[in-house]
Write a structure and sequence with these properties.
alpha+beta, globular
Length: about 140
């Protein structure tokens, strides 16, 4: 099973990507542990797994846009001034300033050190601590 190497995402690419294709997104605050200020975003495009990245220190406008769009499409957290449009993503606080959004329409299962999406796509979290935190959150939400 191939692991995708992240490509840099642009505002134009993000704006063209239907939310339904986004399966997993990590957003790290500027002072977060691990991928500080980073975004890791996995999509499925033409049945192929794609991985994108950006960083608030390189493109703050894009970082804020992605964060706002995903926040508008989940109901677990509220941010002042951002109205919820549709509940499409499960939100997990992954500790130390890391936030994860997983599309509810995909089947996501925890494996040894990665997430398996729809039984065929391998999603790798940016750091082990994020993986462990969301794994715990996923297990708790099942019970």
């Amino acid at each position: 099973m191939k692991t995708e190497t992240p490509k840099n995402i642009t505002l134009q690419t993000f704006n063209k990507t239907p939310l339904e294709q986004i399966i997993y997104t990590e957003i790290a605050d500027s002072g977060a542990m691990g991928n500080a200020g980073g975004i890791l975003l996995y999509t499925i495009e033409s049945e192929k797994l794609c991985c994108y990245q950006t960083n608030m220190f390189e493109d703050e406008k894009l970082y804020l846009k992605i964060r706002e769009v995903l926040t508008r499409h989940q109901t677990a957290i509220k941010i002042e001034g951002i109205e919820i449009v549709k509940d499409m993503f499960n939100y997990y606080y992954a500790g130390f300033g890391n936030h994860v959004f997983i599309n509810k329409s995909f089947s996501v299962r925890k494996k040894d050190d990665y997430l398996m999406v729809n039984g065929m796509y391998k999603v790798i979290c940016s750091v082990k601590g994020v993986f462990e935190s969301i794994s715990t959150g996923m297990e708790q939400s099942k019970s």
